[in-house]
Amino acid sequence: MQEMCGFETTVRGSSAWCNVFSRDEWLSFEYARDVIHFYRAGPGNRFGALMGWLWLNATTSLLLEGPSAGPFFFSLYASHLPMLDPANFCSSVHDGDIVPMLAALDIFHDKADLPITRRADDRVWKTSQVTPMGGRITFERLSCPESESPTQAYVRININDGVVPMPGCDSGPGRSCPLPDFAAKIKNRGVELGDFRAKCGLGDDMPDRITFLHQ
């Protein structure tokens, strides 16, 4: 019933239904949603990060290629932002892929799985911050021509209009991660998660990565 508050607010700008529930009830509702996404496709699901890594790996390949990857991914945003430098582009997917992809990135990491018998108010994983209405993640490929390494490329992660540093890799400008280091971390994460085909019981004749992000 509490979901009606959000949908009515989105449509009408406000909802009297929201006032029916107490603050504690809202906090419990928030936690219930967090638990659902955490275990359905997030860090608490043994396949979550593995599914997200497939997309993350393909996106990393595009970031390594840069502008030579083609105009499609630049046109997603650059066509509407003419001031955007071609070396700084965004790659996007459906919001349903955000949760497993963030699990693969291991950005919002809790030391233990979310408990289901009590509310963990000190948790890091909060769906309202990860996938709010209109939630989005932008991977920015950038370089600094005026710096000591003008040809060095970096990756900066922007989650819902807020820069979130890559754990253990934020030495670049704006807390970005040097692209070679980013690629190495993604590769190592893939090794850590294991082979997609083996984990999902697929045959060796099935693809172990996605290729449709390329034109």
TrEMBL record:
Q: Which UniProt keywords apply?
A: Hydrolase
**Name assigned to this protein:** 3-phytase B
**Matches recorded under CDD domains:** HP_HAP_like (cd07061)
Q: Which residues cross the membrane?
A: none
**What Gene3D superfamilies does the database record attribute to this sequence?**
Phosphoglycerate mutase-like
As one GO molecular function, the record gives:
acid phosphatase activity
Task: Kindly state one GO CC term assigned in the UniProt record.
Answer: fungal-type cell wall
